[in-house]
Design brief:
- The chain has no helices and nine strands.
- With 137 residues, the chain is mostly beta strands.
- Strands 3-9-8-5-6 form a five-stranded mixed beta sheet, with no helix packed on it.
- The termini are far apart.
- 0% of the residues lie in helices and 46% in strands.
Length: 137
Amino acid sequence: MLFYLHKTKVLPIKGMLTLLQGDTTDNIVVTLKEKTTLTNPKYLFVFEHLTTKEQVKFIAGSDLSAYPDRYNEFAVTISQFITLGQYIYKVYEQLSSSNLDPMGLNLVENGRAEFKDATPFAFTKYTPVTQFVTYAG
């Protein structure tokens, strides 16, 4: 199961990471250790938008997890994401701290992520003005 950490709350997400527009950084929680084979890996995150195929790639910073054998937690800079919507994400392990090409790297996790507006959608209610016209005759 995946978890999403927004500010100070850890929330289970139905198999999807969620990033909110308007935040400067957000933390994502994933489980990478179980498929990692390198001793001190650097993790390459690749997010690809489902519709536009726009890609966002970055090397994760330090693992913020208190229990890295159980889960991994990384800070993500939200300004890298431009298009709202759903993404497929893939996480690769590598030794390089600068390589952004996933070719030949070991895939340790993949899934879906959603980049959405921080303001919840609200319907606007309109009250129509009713006028009756009557005819005599």
